[in-house]
Design a protein that fits this description.
Length: about 475
């Protein structure tokens, strides 16, 4: 009873500070740059966490944009097929309307994220079942509906460069670019860390959850791509701007060919496209939540201009509403080039992946160069393989980040230029200039203020743990 009273007293005090629902979240939000600070040590920790936090924030905010753009692409295809297809006089959304859809999705996600945490939790449950059930329906139904399927030799050995579409005729260059799909899909490994404080046996279950997530994503993603590839009817027709989907979204044409070829109707394709759109919708909602929490955590540590504004928590909903709308506003700015540039998705995807994946490079590099006697291993430990694995991971991240800066369409013109290098160069240059001129004097890394409150108010042991 005495221990329970101590904990209750500590939580009441935290509630007075407006943090009751954010208790564990504040200790775990921004976990990636907490790892960077811890592994880099007291001397280099502030710089490491500064770089890692900003890269993660940039990656997450741009990640909202990737979901909004992809969702708008799918919605554009749904409207086109519902109104008669490109060949039948259907309506293809022009650039301005596409931008409106992009901004609309961003706005809706921001609105949802200003509600109480219970609303987001409920939508997350719907998202899980939507993507598991919907994804299963697509990968099973599509190959069964397609009148003909490609042989395994075509799927696993055939090579296409489509120079008439991309202007790229080099097979080696095409192989380099093809690896980007998997790298864009496989990130967010630290998401499980945001929940480990609320998990029993977190030192073991946390890493297991991360590896399990990677395994599940890999299997589902691979099966989804196989289902699409086996179901291709005419590869050369997929990118034709005169086809039924105007060559704007290849999976939409694959679905249309399968269902129209079998039933003479595009209804089935529209239904499956709606499932895909739902996946992007829920994905964008989730990434908006994560982006806001990282911006909030960085603001809590005074690492964002006007931090006092972005770290505010709504008094009743207990969500960082200002941080949510900041992320939405920046995401909207990223989408404005839709009006003039054809490769906006490539650029936003490049920014998202370089930011988020690049953030992992910081703690990985810190672990690789730190002295072994300074490292305190947990039960989930690679032992002698630790440094070689870190080296391979670090080199792979450097490689993929470099590739994401390359053009994906030739010849390079104003409407095909990948503006990611310029955008990242300007933003990261300003962030590092701020560090050199001012931030290095006061930024100390993740603030453990919740731990301090627990220790002070609830009888902690000095290490952020409550004595019960």
């Amino acid at each position: 009873m005495a221990g329970a009273q101590v904990v209750d007293s500590g939580e009441k005090r935290l509630n007075e500070l407006g943090y009751k629902q954010e208790l564990r979240r504040e200790m775990t939000t921004g976990s990636l740059y907490f790892w960077a600070a811890h592994l880099a040590g007291p001397v280099w920790g502030p710089l490491a966490s500064w770089c890692c936090a900003w890269l993660e924030a940039i990656g997450l905010i741009a990640g909202i944009g990737t979901q909004a753009y992809a969702g708008s692409q799918v919605l554009q295809s749904i409207i086109l097929l519902c109104t008669g297809t490109n060949k039948g006089g259907g309506y293809l959304a022009p650039r301005w309307l596409f931008l409106v859809m992009y901004l609309g999705l961003t706005f809706i996600w921001a609105v949802f994220n200003t509600f109480a945490l219970e609303v987001i939790a409920f939508l997350d449950v719907i998202s899980m079942w939507w993507q598991v059930v919907g994804g299963t329906v697509i990968v099973i139904m599509l190959p069964l509906v397609a009148k003909t399927t490609q042989p395994a030799s075509y799927v696993f050995t055939h090579f296409e460069t489509t120079p008439e579409v991309t202007g790229i005729s080099s097979g080696a260059y095409a192989v380099v670019l093809s690896l980007l799909v998997s790298q864009y899909s496989l990130y967010g490994y630290d998401a499980a860390a945001h929940l480990t404080e609320e998990t029993k046996g977190a030192d073991k279950n946390g890493p297991i959850a991360i590896l399990s997530s990677i395994g599940i994503i890999t299997v589902f993603g691979w099966v989804y791509i196989l289902a699409l590839t086996f179901s291709i009817q005419d590869f050369g027709y997929l990118y034709d701007p005169a086809n039924e989907t105007a060559g704007t979204f290849v999976p939409a044409q694959i679905l249309y060919d399968a269902f129209h070829g079998r039933y003479g109707s595009s209804t089935g394709a529209i239904v499956l496209l709606f499932i895909i759109w739902g996946s992007f919708f829920f994905g964008g909602l989730s990434i908006t939540t994560s982006a806001a929490r990282v911006v909030y955590a960085l603001s809590r540590d005074r690492g964002v201009p006007f931090s006092s504004v972005w770290r505010k928590i709504h008094p009743t909903r207990k969500v960082p509403g200002n941080a949510v709308w900041l992320c939405a506003a920046v995401c909207a700015l990223l989408g404005l080039p839709i009006l003039w540039i054809n490769v906006v998705f490539t650029a936003i995807t490049s920014i998202a992946t370089i930011g988020w994946v690049g953030g992992y490079a910081v703690p990985i590099f810190a672990r690789m160069v730190m002295r072994e006697e300074d490292f305190r291993p947990g039960p989930f430990y690679l032992r002698g393989a630790s440094r070689p694995v870190c080296l391979v991971a670090f080199l792979w991240i450097c490689y993929t980040c470099s590739v994401f800066l390359l053009p994906t369409v030739y010849p390079i013109k104003m409407d095909t230029f990948n503006y990611a290098p310029i955008a990242l160069g300007v933003v990261l240059g300003l962030i590092m200039l701020w560090w050199v001129v001012d931030a290095r004097k006061w930024f100390t890394g993740p603030v453990r203020n919740i731990d301090e409150q627990i220790d002070h108010n609830a009888g902690g042991d000095g290490n952020g743990n409550v004595k019960v």
